[in-house]
Amino acid sequence: MKTKSTYNIDLSYDDNYTQGPDFDGTLPDLAEINRDLPGTSLFGHKLNSTLGVPAGPLLNSVYIKLYADLGFDMLTYKTVRSQRFAAHPFPNVLAVAAETGQMQGESAEKPTLYTLPNDSNPLDSLSITNSFGMPSRDPQTWMADVAKAKTFLHNGQMLVVSVVGTAKHGGTLHDLADDFALTGKMAVEAGAEVIEANFSCPNVQSGEGSLYQSPEAVRIITSTMRKSLGNVPLILKMGYLADDNLVLEVMREAVQNGASALSAINTIPAKVLTADGQQALPGEGRLTSGICGATIKPAGLAMARKLLDARSILGLKPEDLTLIGVGGVMTATDALEYLNLGLDGVQSGTGAMWNPALAAEFKQLYSKREATVSAR
């Protein structure tokens, strides 16, 4: 199956932000698709399901509204900052030729990928590069828009706001932590029910994009944010980690300093060239960009297993630390595969962009699974 993306890859980020999602399909009957679901909860919120959209596709309240109407229940408002921050130049999204499993996390032999002329691959083999650079409107603008986004949610849905601190020249890790905390506090004031701290982004040149690799950074930023956020749940967005001991160390620092959940993985960086060997994304520092879609699913599942193993080794329960799987969730079967591992939630970015019906398809499949389990 192939559909067009709700993010128009032929337009700039700012044009997509202003014009809203590209969608002319039929919205599902939410009462119908939620009818046979057993219901669940996350962070004390009653949800229809723990299927959501990660930071990235939902640029503003108009996108939040569409995906709420489509039946996704954990809706993450795209990463915001304490100051206005420009997006990378157009283009920001390109289809790439990549086999499923070609991107194996932190492998030293990451392939160079080549762009395709269009995004016509079937969903189960579609992979893309995205390079936005975590842009943000000014706080006054995005805070008003977050408040608006919350009004679009239906019963059994939850609004997450992704935030990032902005590294300043000559600044310290504590300075960055203070900016994370300030931005998170503003997001809560605007109406966020859950805050996600974005510790992983391969498309920025400053240090805020690789924080998940540093236990010290996880400790300092998480503890600073927890003091600012009070009891508001805090998710840490992570990338892939090959070292199991580092996974344990990062998880230990996260939970000891007040994190409510870990979400993984973000995109995996790789060099991206055009068919004739030129840098695909214009501008300094953009030879390498984040890869997502079908090709990163094995890495996402591998990281999910690492997190589950680490939670078990540390003697933690889901109520101590929630685990959310992301990466290559292109179909309803992919989403269920993550949940079947024992994760507490699952999110789809690229899949949700190119298949807006994913939530309805997942809920139908999930209901059948629950009915089968109940009949045994």
Describe the fold and architecture.
With 376 residues, the chain is α/β, with parallel strands linked by helices. The chain has a single domain, classed as TIM Barrel (Alpha-Beta Barrel), CATH 3.20.20.70. The chain is built from 11 helices and 15 strands. The strands form 3 sheets. It has an 8-stranded parallel barrel, surrounded by 7 helices. The protein has a 5-stranded mixed beta barrel with strand order 5-6-12-13-7. Helix 4 (139-150) crosses helix 5 (173-190) and helix 6 (215-229) runs parallel beside helix 7. The model has no long low-confidence stretch (mean pLDDT 93).
- State the end-to-end distance: 33 Å
Order of helices and strands: HHEEEHEEEEHEHEHEHEEEHEHEHH
Low-confidence stretches: none
DSSP E strands, number: 15
Please, what is the average pLDDT? 93
Question: Which overall shape is indicated by the principal axes computed on the Cα atoms?
Answer: globular
Q: What's the CATH H-level superfamily name?
A: Aldolase class I
Report the C-alpha radius of gyration, rounded: 19 Å
Strand order of the largest sheet: 3-4-8-9-10-11-14-15
Strand content: 15-25%
Report the CATH topology name: TIM Barrel
Main sheet overview: 8 strands, parallel, barrel
CATH architecture descriptor name: Alpha-Beta Barrel
Label the structural class.
Answer: alpha/beta
